[in-house]
Each structure stands twice: as structure tokens, then as C-alpha cells.
């Protein structure tokens, strides 16, 4: 069966020259095996014509599978050291390499004591080029693979079919296609699947209150799990420019002084609950004086987030000498996360050779308090107008109703009243939060916006008709379905902040993990295959988006240092510098900062750009052609502003950036990476390899 298929293929498709070559090779391969079954069933599987499953697509130039070994030679450099429970594997689009599934990736064999040299000899054959990348994994108690680090470059390693038969070179872990945009040295942490994360965050001005010690005391901190099983990994990140990263704890502990930012990250298997001890020392690297310790118990980590307030005990005693106030975050994997695969990661995919992008703020701009915009903000109509004005992307605000439906709206709530109530002035209205209403209640609500001197009713725009592009509260899914894929999106996820004064901006009771999951799921289902960046003013939402998925990049939105607004309690949100540190530490794409941070010193944007981070700018002052141009010259990633129709690029730009079909095909990869699709929607089938001329 196999042979006859091969022969007919050969006769159909291969030139005489190839036929001769094939006939020469065949007996040679046969000698690897016994004659009775030249190809055993297992081998047959491995030698299958690569696109056997899509016989229609087999091109006229398909080449039969010549059984040869492929050798993968890998070396770990860049000071990468494996933990004893870590192993190396190769994954690829070829079935023999597991079709990008983590659990089917093929382990390499270690070759030296340092575990830096690895190799694999595998039967593989391909009639088309194939792609592959290396990864480091460990196993949990159930034997499931945990993805620790992987080559997440947008561009995977590629082997042309004719290169199969060349002697193999040496691959360096993490270095794939250094000269290619989207390639180069890059390693990523895997997304969460069988583990969850607890972050203990020193991100406020004051965390310790210890009797007899000044707030300026220099501490060293060590976090220890108090479990019997060795199933907890702890990393810590102390922010400093260009050195912010989660690393294993050192024996001396991590330095901490009031006002610095230190975040502990704990990885644990699902359904595992451990207690922890935080040991607090005073002094330097070489001399440590124990101050005390604080104990944290599993039942204290309730829900997705919270604040621990725990006593600090004198070492080995039960006398309380102070108190530790420490916010925490718990990040769970997404439901059905197994669908995701290793085909690519988009976390860092936003090449810095792209032009500065023009991004419409809430569409054509904020409309409720600035009467000069005729289109209502955050409506599909307003978004569509951005593309007409040759804008490249739209920024929009998304939050969830009580029944977890993602809707577009900027404020945390709005003013409303009873159905037939007569409204004379603002005192007849009450404020209601989006999270307090389910979607049908929201759509049945009267909507008022309170302006300085007047109040205006918008109920006529709160319609249900999905074809009505001017309606307010469009669902996120409707936005994805209606907008063309050539219009990029910055999807800003709303979450109320704690202000530095201690007051909450608004309240939120929905489960934060479910909240974020719902938005990711809606986006994978309806929004994949387009340029899209998640954003949030909430650093924890950014962390969650980063840890839960690898399909969409993430940026931190930030006001930074401002005279206009009150600061947040979270130090990570108080300056551009800390936003850059956060982006580096959390391994996200970058940040979107308020323009006020750069007013007198535009060059400051380089703090982020020099670290290859995306830097977007936003703010009212940006409605100024000259200012926009000044930042374009500095190559910022994007400018988010109002009134694209008046100050935007319509007069000089030939076309919006994402018009290029190649780009859309590229982002189409998101649908495959997330497991929502097996092929890129609308993309043409891969062309067969063009074989080089034989001499
Ligand atoms: C040939 O190989 C098959 C499968 O690999 C094996 O079952 C069989 O015993 C072998 N025959 C001889 C003669 O070695
Ligand atoms: C929304 O809330 C209303 C009033 O509480 C209730 O009657 C209705 O069933 C809810 N709808 C959904 C879809 O949950
Ligand atoms: C950041 O650190 C790396 C490695 O230490 C160094 O090569 C690079 O020049 C630094 N970049 C900046 C902008 O300081
Ligand atoms: C992808 O999402 C669409 C839209 O809901 C859904 O109909 C489809 O079944 C999903 N495909 C896969 C493979 O999950």
C-alpha cells in the first residue's frame, strides 16, 4: 500500500532525475532493516508523507519520504543551568516532533555531566520544510509536563526539506534566527497549566511595623515553604533598571528597604496548599541579624487577591514584635488551557522596526465630557471611524457585568433612574456599577451622564439591536465580530485601584481570575487573528494575562507621575521608570504612559525603548500635530489620542499599517496557537519546498 502510493506519487510527480536518486536511495535504506518489513508500522507512521492527511494538497513536486536520521544537537549557553528535575525536549509541527503539543515533544538525551549538551537522533522525514523549537520542562507528581522555559520567538527554527540530509549543525538554546525580526535570543516562561502562582508583593510604601526599628531599616528577606514535599518553587524579583527579573532566591535573601519593590512568586502544583515562613533579617550580605519571622498559612490566601495582616514574631519565640501588611495575588491557569500549543508565542511579538502606530482613544475620542466629538466614545461606530481616518488601532475599555459578560464602557458605572421616573435634577438619579447588573438588566437601564452643569440622557443609545453600531455597551464579542481585522485593538481591562490615600477608586467583587479568564476566552473565540494588545492600569491584571496565556501581548497602562490625578497606592504605577521595571520583571511587552511624564524630557521614552519594550503614549495634550510628530521621530511604539480625524494621519498616510495581508496571516497564527483553529483562517496552504537545482 505504502509502496504503491509512493511509486504512483513518484511517477506522477517527480522528474526522471529525482526518480533516479530515489531508486538509488531506496535499497540503501532497506539495509537498515530486515527484508520482511522494510517499514514496520511504527516507522511507516514516522515516514509518512508529511501532508498525507491532506492528499488534495500534495503538490506536483512532492517527494517520497526517504528514511534517514535527523540529529538534533543542542547546547545550553548564556549561563542557563538546569535544575535537577528539568529536561530538554524538541517540539515541532512535524508529527514525529509532536505537532507542537507539549506532551508529545521529544526529549533529548544529555551528553555531559553539566547537562549543557543534549542530542537526539530521530527517524523523521518530510517533503516540506518543517519548524521546530526547544523547550525545558519538568514533570509533576502525575507525570504531566510543566513547561518551564521555551524558545517563544515568533519565528521558529526551520529546516528545509533538502536540509534534512545535510550533516546537522549545533543549535544554541534560545538563539533562533538572530537576524530575523521576531527571532534572536529569546526565552520565555511557559504559561500556567498544572501549576498556580501566588505573588507576595512588597509594592506599597509601608509594609513593616516593627517596634524599636525605624522605617528606614535595611532588611534581608527569605521566604521558605514549610511543606514536607518538595513541590514548591520560589522566585523573587527586586526592581532595578534593566535588572528586574524573577530569579531563584539567594542564600543571603533579598534586600528590602521601605519604598523599594520586591515581589515573591510561588509556583505550586494545583490543589497543593503550603504554609510559608518569611524570615526577616537586618544587616548586610555577610552579617545577618535575625529580626523575626512571619508565618503565612494556606487558609489566609482567600480568593484571587487580598491583604495579609500577620504578626511578626521574635525568632524562635512567640512574642509578637510587630506586624506585616502584605498584599497577595493568586493566579490560576485558564480552564481548558491544554488546547494551547507551542507553535509560537506572541508575548514579545511587536517588532521595533514597525512605524509609530496611530491609536484612536476610545475610538474617535472621549465624547461625554468633550462636546467636540460627534461620535459617542467606545461605540463600534466610533471605532470604525478610526480606520476611515487612517488610524492603525483603537483603544477601548472592557469590563464585566454581574453575569460575566464583557462589555465596553469607560466608567465603572453610570447614573440611572426608574423606568418612568421624571428627572428634574441630579438628585433624582442614582449611581449604579456595571458589576452590579447582569447583561439584560444593563441593556434595560436608563443611562445618564452627569456633566458639570447639565445632565444628559443616553438611554436611546442603549439598544439591543446588534446591527446598531452607535449603541453603547456593545459586547466585546460584537466588537470583534464587527470590526475589520485590519484595525488593531488595545483592549484595556478595567479594574478599580487602591489610591495612595487608602481610598478605593471603585469596588469590585467579581472573582478576578474568572474575570480575566472570561475576557481571554472571548478574545480567543472571537478576536484572534488580528493585531491585539491587552492592557490594564492594574499591574496584577497584567501579571495574570501574562501567566495565563501566550496568544496576546500585554502592556501596563499607567498615569505615572502626575499633577492631574491622585497617585495609586501601587508603587509600580507611580512612575515611568517603575512601569519599565514592571514590564521587564513580568516579561510583558511594555507600557502605555501618560504624556505628562515626558513633557519636559521627551527622550525619557528611551528608558523603555532601549530595553526593547513597547512604549505607547496617551493623554489629552497629544491632540497636537506637532507633538505627535516629535514623538514619531523618537520612534515610540504608538500614540493613543483623541480626534484622529482632525490631527491624525489622514492627509499623509497612504494606508493603515495592518492592511498588509502578510501581517494578517501572521496574526492568524494566534487562532492556531490558542487551539481555537487548526489552520490560519483565510490563509493559503503552504507552498511546497522549491528544491535547489542539483549539479
Ligand atoms: C523483522 O522485523 C520485524 C519488526 O521489526 C520483526 O518482528 C521480525 O522478527 C524481524 N524479522 C527478522 C527475520 O529479523
Ligand atoms: C438578570 O437579573 C434579573 C433581575 O435580578 C433576573 O430576573 C434575570 O433572570 C437575570 N438574567 C440573567 C440572564 O441572569
Ligand atoms: C541591560 O543589561 C544588559 C545585560 O547586562 C546589557 O547588555 C545592556 O546593554 C543593558 N541595557 C541598557 C539599556 O542598560
Ligand atoms: C473557535 O471558536 C469558534 C467561535 O466560537 C467556535 O465556534 C469553534 O468551535 C472554536 N474552535 C475550536 C477548534 O475550538
TrEMBL record:
<dbReference type="InterPro" id="IPR013783">
    <property type="entry name" value="Ig-like_fold"/>
</dbReference>
<keyword id="KW-0732">Signal</keyword>
<feature type="signal peptide">
    <location>
        <begin position="1"/>
        <end position="31"/>
    </location>
</feature>
<dbReference type="InterPro" id="IPR013784">
    <property type="entry name" value="Carb-bd-like_fold"/>
</dbReference>
<dbReference type="InterPro" id="IPR051578">
    <property type="entry name" value="GDPD"/>
</dbReference>
<feature type="domain" description="GP-PDE">
    <location>
        <begin position="356"/>
        <end position="651"/>
    </location>
</feature>
<dbReference type="InterPro" id="IPR002044">
    <property type="entry name" value="CBM20"/>
</dbReference>
<dbReference type="Pfam" id="PF00686">
    <property type="entry name" value="CBM_20"/>
</dbReference>
<dbReference type="GO" id="GO:0046475">
    <property type="term" value="P:glycerophospholipid catabolic process"/>
</dbReference>
<dbReference type="GO" id="GO:2001070">
    <property type="term" value="F:starch binding"/>
</dbReference>
<dbReference type="Pfam" id="PF03009">
    <property type="entry name" value="GDPD"/>
</dbReference>
<dbReference type="InterPro" id="IPR017946">
    <property type="entry name" value="PLC-like_Pdiesterase_TIM-brl"/>
</dbReference>
<dbReference type="InterPro" id="IPR030395">
    <property type="entry name" value="GP_PDE_dom"/>
</dbReference>
<keyword id="KW-0378">Hydrolase</keyword>
<dbReference type="GO" id="GO:0047389">
    <property type="term" value="F:glycerophosphocholine phosphodiesterase activity"/>
</dbReference>
<feature type="domain" description="CBM20">
    <location>
        <begin position="59"/>
        <end position="175"/>
    </location>
</feature>
<protein>
    <submittedName>
        <fullName>Uncharacterized protein</fullName>
    </submittedName>
</protein>
